[in-house]
Amino acid sequence: MLHRNEACRTVLKQGWLSQTPASFQGEVLARCLLQRFKQGASVYSIGDKPGGMFGLVAGGLGVTMAPQEEGPYVAHFAMPGTWFGEAAAFTRQPRMIGLTATRDSELFHLPLSAVDEIVKRDPSAWRYLGLVTLDHLRLSLGAADDLMIRNHVKRFVAVLLRTAGCRLTTPPSQCPIEIDINHEDLARMTNVARTTAGAILRTLEADGCVALSYRRIEMLAPDRLRRMLRE
After folding, report:
1. Domains of the chain (ranges plus CATH)?
2. Which pTM value belongs to this model?
3. At what angle do helices 194-206 and 152-163 cross, to 10 degrees?
4. Which of 40, 92, 107, 197 is most buried, judging by how many CB atoms fall within 10 Å of its CB?
5. Dist CA 169 CA 136 (whole Å)
């Protein structure tokens, strides 16, 4: 398990909390609980009663949704630094998405009572909490735009980049970028057949852009993949 100081450094250098003032960061982290979830464990499910916020410190999360007639199905893969749960804190309505640990993971949990305490001390803190929703809106708009790409190979590459957190830029970290996802889920996310998804991945692997293993994809050349979208 990560040392708490190391966990704090992770969420302060990337993601939502890194975009907020230092005083607000201190208020949040002072009230966060560091929790561990084994691979396959549910953090929360669609329809669960409202609760607090969660910030991914280490590991990975599969994000499930079911907004229309179908689902639930995997719609995104979350990387460390990503936060969820602010919608339930705002509305006190049931969870709209589900989160599942795709590998052994560690998360900060900011309880709902802690959110209320922060806002009671400083009502303007709602603006900083709202930045999480803004991040999710940007992600959703980008995802919708990518799914309008007519060329199925480019559409597939765009979604792959988005799930790896490098759709627009490559993170400066020297750590390998790995996403936990199977061919079936990725095919649904990109609106292609499963056999087509497998064929595209094998081609990308042969070109040295990705490395494939069981339920995991390592991004080897995200910059090259982004150039493919402009060609």
Report:
1. 4-146 (2.60.120.10), 152-230 (1.10.10.10)
2. 0.92
3. 80
4. 107
5. 17
What is the C-alpha radius of gyration for the chain, rounded to an integer number of angstroms? 18
By the 10 Å C-beta count (0-12 exposed, 13-18 middle, 19+ buried), 168 is classed as exposed
Contacting residues for 74 by C-beta, under 8 A, at least 6 apart: 62, 63, 64, 181, 185, 188, 189
pLDDT (tens digit, 9 = 90+) per residue, 25-73? 999 999 999 999 999 999 999 999 999 999 999 999 999 998 776 778 8
Structure token digits, residue 67: 């907004």
Residues facing residue 83 across a β-bridge: 55
Of 2, 19, 85, nearest in space to 48 by CA: 85
Would you give the distance in Å from CA 103 to the centre of its chain? 14
Q: How far is CA 75 from CA 49, 56, 111, 113, 170, in A?
A: 21, 17, 25, 29, 21
